[in-house]
Amino acid sequence: MEGDPTLRLRVFDLNCWAIRYLSKRRQERVRLIGEVLQREGFDLVLLQEVWSEQDYNDLKVKLGGYYPFSHYFRSGVIGSGLCIFSRFPILDTLLYQYSLNGYPYMLQHGDWFCGKSVGLVSVWNSASLLLGSHQLHAEYCREKDAYLPHRLVQAWELAQFIRHTSKAADVVLLGGDLNMHPEDVGIRLLRGWTGLRDAFAEATRFEVSGRGRAGCQGTPRASHQPRCLSQGCEDGCTLVPNNCFTDKSELLPFPLGIRIDYILYKAISSFMVKCEELKTTTGAVPGMDVPFSDHEAVMATLHIQRQGQAAGATLSTAEPMLADVVTEARTEVGVGLRVAQQQRYSSGRMAVLALLLLLLQAAAALGALAGLDAGQPFPKLSFCLLAFLAIGILLLATGLYLFHTMEVKMLQGTEEQMRMVLQALQERP
Amino acid sequence: MEGDPTLRLRVFDLNCWAIRYLSKRRQERVRLIGEVLQREGFDLVLLQEVWSEQDYNDLKVKLGGYYPFSHYFRSGVIGSGLCIFSRFPILDTLLYQYSLNGYPYMLQHGDWFCGKSVGLVSVWNSASLLLGSHQLHAEYCREKDAYLPHRLVQAWELAQFIRHTSKAADVVLLGGDLNMHPEDVGIRLLRGWTGLRDAFAEATRFEVSGRGRAGCQGTPRASHQPRCLSQGCEDGCTLVPNNCFTDKSELLPFPLGIRIDYILYKAISSFMVKCEELKTTTGAVPGMDVPFSDHEAVMATLHIQRQGQAAGATLSTAEPMLADVVTEARTEVGVGLRVAQQQRYSSGRMAVLALLLLLLQAAAALGALAGLDAGQPFPKLSFCLLAFLAIGILLLATGLYLFHTMEVKMLQGTEEQMRMVLQALQERP
């Protein structure tokens, strides 16, 4: 940006819901996504839930002409599902896998197997740009959200990761499915602790794509005040009832839908970023009976400009509020910690009981061998079944004990880090 | 360093070998470590294998007067074992857990349970300092090193982590047990790709502590040429035969010992770092019959100086050599990938066979229930035992299949990243 002091950047973000064998009309939708990306010609494309590497490769072949640079992040059993397509050269990549991500035995939720991560690429287009694509643990029940502590640990780790990796970047851009509503503690923590701005809240113009309607068009909006949302319009929602793939019963308390996919950004050094326009898709692709995904795509046009002096006031002005947010998050992590400690204790006790049963059986078997059993011996079949059951429980309970030990350690670590940050915030004049 | 343009930094690094119930004379040794740290008054202390949090807390209480700032990194089942004590305020911390770290079924090696990581703290003392403490997977058999691909993935991830997090730091300092000899591909990769310098190779003075002997004293040494080592003196070795805790048979091919613990550093911005002096302990603590650990401690005195222009030539001058190192590492990762793919295939086949056996049994049982068994039925006990065996094998093989799938993904990801880097290196003029 030496010659041209401004840059207009068009960013596309979508949770593609492309799980092999499970997602409905996957191949058709991936083809449609490829077509729209080809037609619209964005600068940067951040995709999540592209679980099949074949789908990524197909997209790569299709989009190679317009987006010559791309990266697919591999992790976990199934993969991270994250990939990035770019018009600008990708200089370097880094994957950070969250330390907590649900429970392996919650097979029906499956988050644990996905290796949820944040993938980072450095992109160069005169200004150095740090780009993240990420996905946090899903929320399956808002009223009794057992995964909240895990999601908060992930939000904290994501924030820490961004803080540590973005220090020399000019612009940071983060897009992805946070699985959190805008007012949730996790997103307030992420935004407060990194200084990232929400493209939707900052956008000068907001438009619902495919309906030709501009919600709040032309009304300049003050920062951090998502007026559209408070006025009750559906703007910005990325999980909406009129998408044929969403679960309508889950959205009953939210008739307009919910907003859980975000494009966040900030300028670090002597640059200024403004969100000129934000768009989302809304349900079915125009002219088709199928949407791109069960989530809506978020599309932002960012205006990046070099300016005289460094902008870094976001964090310091928000500090008193930040302390409250960190305290709130720390309380939730503390609740999760106590639950994890209780689960560790229960599984440990179960393992000990199974071991005792096995020892008792071994003693009885030895007694029988030595001819010490005076009365009627156990039937062999029941004896064997009981032994196998005890071994099974012992193995399972030991596995759970180890898992919950890890969970306790990570929750303790996060709580300790948050305590340090709170102390530092309070000590500042 | 606005007022004072130079800073003398004394750094202590030690793999403490403090495993509860397993490490010999642990409490006594931790007490001795605390005493020497208190007496010598270093500026920064990087400790590994402090597996018991109680030991860390004891050290923290003991050292609080001289090192008011400290951090313990929690991860894995047992923990990361990493902690840092500092005279300067710790501003921020981040833990990066390596994606591969051995196999959970190799219980006798236990690396998998430790959550091997690199812990990072930002320290401020006029110059911003990025400090890492880390430990890579142990080498159990040098001739047939099954863990080499995992260690290379770790070295690569460590290098990437340093590159991404150190961009705005003035000085980067990394201390820890790399479990690699100085000429090994992993350490050449780490040094080549980050530009980190080896304090031992760069030290103006080298001294074997506790023996009053200065090896190579006063001989200025050219960079990247560990002359002492090539002259066959034991300088710099951190696993030595005259330490009563080391396994003498493992050190038979290396009569002088081996060097696997390092202090590495580099200056990023307009600073210059020089290693003024390097010391190691050698076996037993003077006046005692016990050493601090089975490893020797490494102590470096670094001279940090502000200079006019930024120094960043290390990487570019070493690029042709770097391409060779990355190619070599990529080949080894490729070998590991093929082994992992083979193991995944074997465990998948085993799972399918167990499933077939179970289905066969289920069919036989159903047949018996329907009164279709014409001949002699199976004895019930054998039938049950076989079913339990099949279930056990199915579960185990499925677990292994999932684990090796993850391993394959991570090895593929690393290979792909290395390919990208090689391409970028070759494309440069």
Automatic annotation (TrEMBL), chains A, B:
Q: Which UniProt keywords apply?
A: Hydrolase, Lipid metabolism, Magnesium, Membrane, Metal-binding, Sphingolipid metabolism, Transmembrane, Transmembrane helix
- Residue ranges of domain Endonuclease/exonuclease/phosphatase in the record: 15-295
The record's subcellular locations are: Membrane
Q: Which top-level enzyme class is recorded in the Swiss-Prot or TrEMBL entry?
A: hydrolase
* InterPro entries recorded: Endo/exonu/phosph_ase_sf, Endo/exonuclease/phosphatase, Sph/SMPD2-like
| Gene3D superfamilies linked to this entry | Endonuclease/exonuclease/phosphatase
Known EC number: 3.1.4.12
Tell me what topology the record assigns in the membrane.
Multi-pass membrane protein
**Gene Ontology biological-process annotations:** sphingolipid metabolic process
Q: Does the keyword Lipid metabolism apply?
A: yes
Write out the GO MF terms. metal ion binding; sphingomyelin phosphodiesterase activity
Q: Transmembrane segments in this chain: where? A: 351-372, 378-403
Q: In which pathway does it act?
A: Lipid metabolism; sphingolipid metabolism; Sphingolipid metabolism
One Pfam family matching this protein: Exo_endo_phos
Q: Which GO terms describe its cellular component?
A: membrane
State whether keyword tRNA-binding applies: no
Please give the family membership noted in the entry. Answer: Belongs to the neutral sphingomyelinase family.
Task: Name it.
Answer: sphingomyelin phosphodiesterase
Gene this chain is encoded by: Smpd2
